[in-house]
TrEMBL record, chains A, B:
Residue ranges of every copy of the Saccharopine dehydrogenase-like C-terminal domain listed in the record: 151-404
Record has Zinc-finger as a keyword: no
Source species taxonomy: Bacteria, Bacillati, Actinomycetota, Actinomycetes, Micrococcales
Record protein name field: ATP-binding protein
Record keywords, A-Z: ATP-binding, Nucleotide-binding
Protein's organism: Cryobacterium lactosi
Domain Saccharopine dehydrogenase NADP binding: 3-146
Length: 427, 427
């Protein structure tokens, strides 16, 4: 396996650092629009693991927005797998470039949605991933695999859902992905500051788009942003966090392979963050349409959302000033294999102090990057195999969770949790 | 009297429209950085009042940031009074330009403050107007008058305070300027939108700077932004509005001429607006320090606060879509002239439907522009006279309020209110 990693930002950098400790692949090309960023990732691998390990990595410059450039770089390095670790707006170009180069493809976020033109808060328009699934025939014909949504959420959440479906439930009422954290970022003086741990650009995109929900009787439909607030109790000391519906890939992926009456995604944004996003929307500062602004060099046309992103600390740099844990998981309700009501929360927790110490990566991007590493290892060893455009739940979950939990060096040393909860009286 | 109006934005435009109906002056030069804007103001006067009235106005281009340009334009037109109607960051250059040209000067906001370098929330640094008052000697020596803070707040509020001091109270506990409104702006579809009725740039400046308070025993001191929230009941149907301390000129002006134990300014921002300002501050979007942002034409350095302003509707354009009233006034507590506890609220209310119909100007900018017109008329007729740097409370309030209240054409047809309130048990 020869991997082309596209993007050496927070997640790409963490991915490279994770697989530097594995041996399932032959070579990795770390590419970025900014070559220096790719080189810094490899330099940090050299520092920690030595020149021999670093020799398995090559830096390259790439323009992820151009499918032909992606294909050319992939061909030049005889790449077998293209790993997309950049913003979702580049999904289509990298997806096309990988197929053109005859490589398999993985991403951690799917092609973007477009709201319904007249009924955005009740009906779906173009859904997340629609563009990719429309091209599934081309991938099947070529005998190539596009494994889409293979981060932590989507990704590990979909693996949990498949595991619950295969091993824990005979009938599922709801597959509810629930994400929450108790992360705090401080400035040099020790005061708490506002510093999202993931790209604010992407967070705005997913939180302000109409959330999508799946119901077996109704299909996919949407609601207004921040709908159905719910306090969810997260494990390992994180505790209760206010969660709201958010547009997310799981809702589009799980119903394609798994049988459930309802599929939802709720993000534990917390009240402060929800307030911030509401205000950005109220003021039009979430907009990607440029406005005319005066500058010292004359007028410029800038997208307000880009200015919001530029005003906040870079999520890749806040790791050393952050404390706390982040939790990703799926809350499943229904009937157990014995036919009795059952309710479980399957989850994985990532602790920032540990990821910083072990990988010099903050916990949210590290947890995202962990999962495509595991998936690639299963593909490299032939445990997972397939063609076409497939989600993580199309594959057997058991070997995945076993490889994740097994101690190093056999596995990734990342145990996961199963929280057995008391089912509500009537389901 | 020959007036140079600097700025034909919302307030400048309304000022020109107000004095188009008066005859106390000989000529007005309407100047703006954008000559077309000055010409549009005069064109609208021609449409409403005819060519003869419009002939008393001349348009000119000006760079308000350059004192020499201001002086040159003033000399070219033999100007006797320079009327500053632009953002407060231009106060110093226009103030200097007027003195250089040998003209008197009026403004509606004073030179800007700088927070205390180490104790911003308890001690004052450079205060509003400090820079102007330091130059008072030059104005006195030249025999010229700078009448500073002569809008509605500061301005009419200071006139009310002087009136209360001269005619209603023997001893004053607090001179508390209180500003509130029930304005609502709607989009074309009739939905309420977020659209501040005054420059967001200036609003951020005054609301996020540490509020200043005066106490006779302590002098001037500061607090944290949004301190001492209080629900104040505004008259004429506006009702209760949440008010907080805000940095404002009245607190710096009134104690120089009037005797009061405490001087405060509270702005009826309402909870939503306070939340918006807090969020802008939390995210650094109130900042005037440029950040690097990508644009279609390459990277640009833009000030986040300018992007916020550019993303919101121009306050000068929202008049037709706005309904409601705005109230400016001073709440005075102490002992009446009979020595008994007394509490009054002296106020003026401006109704947007009326100002739009009568002047084609939205009510907040119209109410601001009304007051320098009255002051100039009192200076033109010799009822008010003085030299040096003086606030509105340095002049007799009675003729001002009489001219304001008298029906047109003798006066401005703007009655003011005196709300007698029940004093608290112990003052």
């Amino acid at each position: 396996m020869r991997i082309l990693l596209v993007g050496a930002g927070g997640v790409g950098d963490a991915f490279a650092k994770i697989i530097a400790r594995r041996s399932f692949y032959e070579h990795v090309v770390v590419s970025d629009y900014d070559l220096g960023r790719a080189e810094r990732t490899i330099a940090s691998i050299a520092t920690r693991h030595g020149a021999e390990t670093a020799a398995r990595f090559t830096a390259a410059q790439i323009d992820a927005s151009d499918p032909e450039v992606v294909a050319r770089v992939a061909r030049e390095h005889s790449v077998t797998h293209v790993m997309n670790a950049v913003e979702p707006k580049f999904v289509q170009s990298i997806f096309a470039g990988a197929l053109a180069a005859g490589a398999d493809y993985l991403d951690m976020a799917m092609s973007l949605s477009e709201p319904h033109p007249t009924e955005p808060h009740t009906e779906t328009g173009i859904k997340l991933g629609d563009d990719q699934f429309e091209q599934a025939g081309d991938w099947e014909t070529s005998g190539r695999l596009a494994l889409v949504g293979m981060g932590v959420e989507p990704g590990l959440s979909d693996v949990f859902a498949r595991y619950a479906s295969d091993h824990l439930f005979s009938e599922i009422d709801e597959l509810g992905t629930r994400d929450g954290a108790n992360l705090v970022v401080r400035d040099e003086a020790g005061n708490e500051i506002f510093a999202p741990s993931f790209s604010i650009w992407t967070t705005i995109e997913e939180c302000l788009n109409p959330p999508v929900i799946f119901e077996k009787d109704r299909g996919w439909f949407t609601t207004a942003p921040f709908s159905e607030p719910e306090v969810f109790d997260f494990p390992e000391g994180i505790g209760p966090v206010e969660c709201v519906n958010v547009e997310h890939e799981e809702v589009l992926l799980m119903p394609r392979w798994l049988d459930a009456k309802r599929v939802t995604f709720k993000y534990g944004l917390g009240e402060e963050f929800i307030g911030v996003l509401r205000t950005l929307h109220l003021l039009g500062l979430d907009s990607v349409n440029p406005v005319r602004v005066r500058t010292a060099d004359g007028p410029a046309m800038v997208a307000p959302r880009d200015v919001v992103a530029a005003s906040l600390p870079d999520p890749a740099t806040i790791g050393p000033r952050m404390t706390g844990k982040t939790c990703a998981g799926v809350w499943v309700t229904g009937l157990g294999t014995d036919g009795a009501p059952r309710e479980v929360y399957l989850y994985h927790v990532s602790d920032n102090e540990w990821t910083m110490a072990e990988y010099d990566a903050q916990c949210v991007v590290w947890q995202t990057a962990l999962n495509p590493a595991i998936a690639l290892e299963l593909l490299a060893t032939g445990v997972w195999a397939g063609t076409g455009v497939l989600g993580p739940e199309a594959f057997d979950a058991k070997p995945y969770l076993d490889l994740m939990a097994a101690p190093e060096p056999a596995g990734y040393g990342q145990p996961w949790g199963l929280d057995e909860r008391t089912p509500a009286a009537a389901s």
